[in-house]
Design brief:
This protein is α+β, with helices and mostly antiparallel strands. Among the domains are: about 90 residues, Immunoglobulin-like (Sandwich); about 30 residues. About 30% of the residues lie in helices and about 25% in strands. It is built from 3 helices and 8 strands; from the N terminus they run H-E-E-E-E-E-E-E-E-H-H. A hairpin with a 2-residue loop joins strand 1 and strand 2. The longest helix has about 30 residues.
């Protein structure tokens, strides 16, 4: 049985359609495993008391991608934090950036994977409103020697009253409690002279001397007058 030209043309045409279909299928399957910006995810986490930014690459094709992280400041000014290359996997490969981020800060994460991806992860990464907590150190226990010990001496205001030195000793029986001693009376007379009769006695004595002298004078005069008569 011979093959005609018409049959040969039909065979070649069918083969071309099958090849084209296979190419389309292969292209679709390869594009399904190609690296894309949707394969990357950025998160702000805590590593103990320090903050970190973690970028996860779930690109199953394993295309190396350069990850760059930028901190967005006031007025649109950016500060580059760091960059590193990550090779994705179906399970997900993480790139960790040590960054002590502040609450409610905004970071831009850029991905560059050859000629396939050159874009930012959307939306921009915004950190949590609460910062990473610092580990609380245990309160040191003071040494036993630093604890003050109560004194064994009796505190002021003891229950046992002690006799006060300011209390007066009771006066002996038979002596008035408020009567001054003889020595005190003498000292009062010597200092003030308020109770002394020395002036009165001296005045009376002077008066008596004058009266006596006058009496003697008049007596002698009377006696002389008698002798003359």
């Amino acid at each position: 049985m011979s093959i005609t030209r018409r049959s040969a043309r039909r065979s070649v045409r069918a083969l071309g359609v099958a090849s084209a279909s296979a190419a389309v299928v292969l292209g679709l399957s390869s594009s399904a495993f190609a690296c894309a910006i949707g394969d990357f995810k950025a998160e702000a986490k805590c590593d103990g008391a320090k903050g970190v930014i973690v970028v996860t690459d779930i690109d199953a094709s394993g295309v190396p991608a350069a990850v760059s992280v930028f901190l967005e400041g006031a007025g649109g000014v950016e500060t580059k934090v760091a960059d590193q290359v990550v090779k994705g996997s179906k399970e997900g490969t993480q790139a960790t950036f040590r960054e002590d981020w502040k609450p409610n800060a905004t970071y831009r994460v850029h991905i560059k994977a050859g000629n396939i991806v050159d874009a930012d992860v959307k939306p921009d990464l915004v950190t949590p409103s609460t910062a990473c907590k610092k580990e609380e150190s245990p309160t040191p226990t003071p040494p036993a020697s630093s604890t003050p010990t109560p004194s064994k001496s009796a505190p002021t205001g003891s229950a046992t009253p002690t006799p006060s030195a300011s209390r007066s000793t009771p006066a002996p029986a038979g002596t008035p409690g408020n009567a001054p001693s003889p020595a005190a009376a003498d000292s009062n007379l010597a200092e003030t002279g308020a109770d002394s009769n020395t002036g009165l006695i001296a005045g009376v004595a002077a008066a008596l001397v004058v009266v006596g002298g006058g009496a003697v004078f008049f007596g002698m005069r009377r006696r002389g007058a008698r002798n003359d008569g």
